[in-house]
């Protein structure tokens, strides 16, 4: 029998503890991979999403709040800009495209965003424009809506359906507006926060019944595409450093990066917890094999009596620990997939950002290998005990 | 000469700190293919003697030469290698590994020496009458059948010397006689010498060559000899 067969036989013999210990390794490996992938993909997705715009203008206040509100459709608006301010931005020679948006209403928690139709001319990703999957774009002069794919799926809205918007960004049953909107189209999935939005003509949102008539022409933000990078620097200087009327969030990715840098300590804590879980799992291999050593002393003595060297016994125990870790590392991919699927579902539900559990990440190589290494290391202590087993003392009773 | 022993000594420290000599054998030898029975009372050092020959224990002094190799002077790895290739050991309690099937137990007997040979293992188990029980676990066999597996395992590495430590001690008289016949016959068939220790008169009577440990082991005559740990 080869060493490997002896190891497999031993694992089979101690099936229950093998399975339990391998499961703890699987949890640790799956958790390690999930923490890394969620962290990396979330950062890449949040800092990579600019919806095709270079910057966002909004009322004086937090850039992060402005970006979250206008690009990710999260958070409340930091304030409004007047239509005149919007026009001034749109007419600026440094601005190639300006898209005003207005927020303030929802339908069962999904935001209604008032927008002009030039939004649909912007490439949100290279070569990709927002497009309708069924129906057609809203008519700016009618009470029509184009529903993002995710929102349509969750709200079960289809072309021709009608609905009454609700006031505010958070759904409250008693705040229903009187206006009736007709779904004119459902958008193709873009895997961006736009999938969670119900797009309506900006005038429709501005003039919704119950909204303040004095601010009816205000916009919540203006998304801009610039002519060249130097324009961004100039406008940053002009509006953020020298001016005190508007905030210009530019570049969008930088604003989001700052958010992730701020929560970096939380990421570190998560990583530390994942590492601790990995160590505890490795400890469980050590404990499980070490505890079985007493009952296995005779077995070891028999193998030695049959000619197995001390080093062979040592190798068997280390391989056994590695085998448990390997089983756990393989099962860890299953655990990872379950955790990631749940995390991806939750993040998509809350933000519209889509994480892909099946996308390759380096952690998928190093985490299982690290668990294998830790498992082998954990096997060293019981292996040393097995190595020292006295043959004659642990064989049959002497005559 | 297959086995040659000169001035072999082994002592152990007792719990009270004194030193107890268990084996003190000036000379002992065995020829290739020879079958010798060794008798002695309980605690006379029989197992210790066999363990010294097998290289499981290292002697305090003297020389054990097996098939031209000075096993007493070899390091632990060397003794392991010699045991794996040259010696078959049948234990009183068989010492089968319970988590392994019959054929796996026999395969283990050759794994550390010449290497696993499934056909040879199957043939050996067939010879001891267990050709139909290859995949049975020891707990699924009778005591006599377990002993047959132990015999097959001892011969698995095609040893030049088979050491048998009270191999019939746990068997009823009929099974013991049958088992002893089997051990002697299979050793003969495989050209292996046999050194069997027993205190059972019925077993000893079947050997032409019977040695009393008290005659060759000066320590065996001492009161309490061999009762310390091996």
Q: What's the total count of β strands of chain A?
A: 13
Task: State the end-to-end distance of chain B.
Answer: 27 Å
Oligomer: heterodimer
Largest sheet of chain A: 11 strands, mixed
Average of the residue pLDDT scores of chain A = 90
Q: Please compute the radius of gyration of chain A using only Cα atoms.
A: 30 Å
Structural class of chain B: alpha/beta
Number of strands of chain B: 9
* Helical segment count of chain A: 13
The H-and-E topology of chain A, N to C, reads as HHEHHEEEEEEHEEEEHEHEHHHHHH
Largest interface, Cβ cutoff 8 Å: A-B, 28 and 43 residues
Q: In CATH terms, what is the fold-level topology of chain B? A: Rossmann fold
Work out the helicity level of chain A. Answer: 40-55%
Low-confidence stretches of chain A: none
| Arithmetic mean of pLDDT of chain B | 87
Based on CA atoms alone, the radius of gyration of chain B comes out at 17 Å
The sequence of SSEs of chain B as H and E is EEEHEEHEHHHEHEHEH
Give a quick account of the main beta sheet of chain B: strands, pairing sense, barrel closure: 5 strands, parallel
CATH superfamily of chain B: P-loop containing nucleotide triphosphate hydrolases
Structure, explained:
The complex is a heterodimer of chains A (399) and B (230). Chain A has 399 residues and is an alpha+beta fold. Chain A has two domains: 3-46 and 262-394, no CATH class; 52-250, no CATH class. Chain A is 52% helix and 16% strand. Chain A has helices at 3-13, 15-48, 63-70, 83-91, 149-155, 202-206, 229-242, 252-262, 264-292, 297-305, 310-351, 363-387, 391-394; strands at 55-59, 95-107, 110-115, 123-125, 128-129, 132-135, 144-147, 162-163, 166-167, 181-187, 198-201, 221-226, 246-249. In chain A, α1 (3-13) crosses α11, α2 (15-48) packs antiparallel against α9 and α11 (310-351) packs antiparallel against α12 (363-387). The longest helix of chain A has 42 residues, at 310-351. The mean pLDDT of chain A is 90. Chain B has 230 residues and is an alpha/beta fold. Chain B has eight helices and nine strands. In chain B, β4 (61-66) and β5 (69-70) form a beta hairpin. In chain B, α3 runs parallel beside α5 (143-155) and α4 packs across α5. Classes of the chains: A alpha+beta (399), B alpha/beta (230).
């Amino acid at each position: 029998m080869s060493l490997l067969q002896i190891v497999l036989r031993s694992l089979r013999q101690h099936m229950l503890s093998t399975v339990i210990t391998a499961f703890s390794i699987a949890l640790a490996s799956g958790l390690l991979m999930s923490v890394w992938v969620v962290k990396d993909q979330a950062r890449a997705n949040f800092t990579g999403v600019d919806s095709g715009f270079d910057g966002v203008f909004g009322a004086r206040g937090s850039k992060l709040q402005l970006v979250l509100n206008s690009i990710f459709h999260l958070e409340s608006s930091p304030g409004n800009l007047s239509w005149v301010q919007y026009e001034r931005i749109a007419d600026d020679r440094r601005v190639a495209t300006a898209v005003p948006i207005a927020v303030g209403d929802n339908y069962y928690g999904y935001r209604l965003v008032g927008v002009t139709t030039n939004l649909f001319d912007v490439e949100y990703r290279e070569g990709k424009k927002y497009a309708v999957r069924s129906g057609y774009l809203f008519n700016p002069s009618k009470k029509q809506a184009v529903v993002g794919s995710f929102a349509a799926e969750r709200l079960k809205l289809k072309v021709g359906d009608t609905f009454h918007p609700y006031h505010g960004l958070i759904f409250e049953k008693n705040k229903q507006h009187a206006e009736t909107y007709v779904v004119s189209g459902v958008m193709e999935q873009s895997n961006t926060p736009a999938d969670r939005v119900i797009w309506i003509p900006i005038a429709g949102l501005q003039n919704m019944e119950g909204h303040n008539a004095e601010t009816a022409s205000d916009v919540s933000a203006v998304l801009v595409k610039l002519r060249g990078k130097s324009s961004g620097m100039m406008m940053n200087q002009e509006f953020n450093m020298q001016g005190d009327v508007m905030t210009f969030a530019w570049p969008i990715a930088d604003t989001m990066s700052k958010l992730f840098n701020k929560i970096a300590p939380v990421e570190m804590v998560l990583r530390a917890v994942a590492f601790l879980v990995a160590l505890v799992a490795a400890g469980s291999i050590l404990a499980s094999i070490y505890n079985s050593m007493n009952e296995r002393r005779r077995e070891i003595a028999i193998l030695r009596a049959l000619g197995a060297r001390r080093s062979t016994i040592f190798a068997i125990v280390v391989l056994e620990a590695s085998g448990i870790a390997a089983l756990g590392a393989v099962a860890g991919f299953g655990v990872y997939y379950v955790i990631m699927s749940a995390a991806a579902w939750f993040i998509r539900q809350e933000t519209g950002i889509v994480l892909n559990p099946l996308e390759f990440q380096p952690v998928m190589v190093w985490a299982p290998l690290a668990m294998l290494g830790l498992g082998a290391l954990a096997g060293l202590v019981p292996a040393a005990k097995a190595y020292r087993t006295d043959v004659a003392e642990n064989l049959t009773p002497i005559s | 000469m297959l086995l040659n022993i000169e001035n072999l000594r082994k002592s152990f420290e007792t719990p009270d700190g004194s030193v107890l000599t268990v084996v003190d054998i000036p000379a002992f030898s065995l020829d290739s293919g020879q079958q010798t029975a060794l008798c002695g009372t309980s605690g006379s050092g029989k197992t210790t003697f066999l363990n010294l020959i097998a290289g499981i224990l290292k002697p305090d002094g003297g020389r054990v030469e097996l098939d031209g190799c000075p096993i007493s002077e070899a390091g632990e790895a060397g003794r392991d290698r010699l045991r794996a290739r040259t010696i078959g050991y049948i234990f009183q309690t068989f010492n089968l590994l319970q988590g392994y099937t019959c054929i796996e137990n026999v395969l283990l007997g050759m794994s550390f020496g010449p290497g696993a040979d499934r056909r040879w293992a199957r043939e050996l188990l067939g010879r001891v009458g267990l050709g139909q029980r290859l995949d049975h676990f020891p707990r699924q066999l009778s005591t006599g059948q377990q002993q047959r597996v132990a015999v097959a395992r001892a011969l698995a590495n095609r040893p030049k010397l088979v050491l048998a430590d009270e191999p019939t001690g746990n068997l009823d008289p009929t099974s013991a006689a049958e088992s002893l016949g089997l051990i002697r016959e299979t050793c003969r068939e495989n050209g292996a010498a046999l050194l069997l220790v027993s205190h059972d008169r019925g077993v000893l009577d079947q050997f032409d060559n019977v040695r009393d440990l008290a005659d060759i082991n000066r320590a065996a005559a001492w009161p309490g000899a061999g009762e310390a740990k091996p």
